[in-house]
Amino acid sequence: MALADATIFRSVVPASQTALVAGSSALLRIASFAPHAVVDELVFRLVAMSALAWLLTALLGLRPLAFWIAIVITALVIYPAAQHAYLAKLTPSLLTMMREIMLHGGAGILWGWLYWRHGLVASMVGHVSAHLALQPMLGLLFG
Fold first, then answer.
1. For a tag site, which of 30, 71, 81, 119 has the least CB within 10 Å?
2. What is the pLDDT of residue 60?
């Protein structure tokens, strides 16, 4: 995603994000984002996705389908609804919408799948590991 932000989406990357990358070290950003990644997994996967999957399984009875529906709804509806303050600050455009869906929606679907197939620790490790790779790369591309 860092490469996409540096090329395709560069014009819609929020100024606050480029300022954060330019103004702080990768280590400081990792130390800041890692706890948030863990909390995201607790809130969005353990609580929201699990509750939704349980409800859909009870209603539909189709367990794999219920989990996929829960994963997609959590990533593309519940997460954005919870992040409305961040999203409200963005300049609305098709490119911005595509970036947010790819960045947060795509990651949310991946973390949801990891949670479903391998458990909470796997989704936490995946989410935190993404920041371990992403933050230094962002520093190189935007710093």
1. 81
2. 86
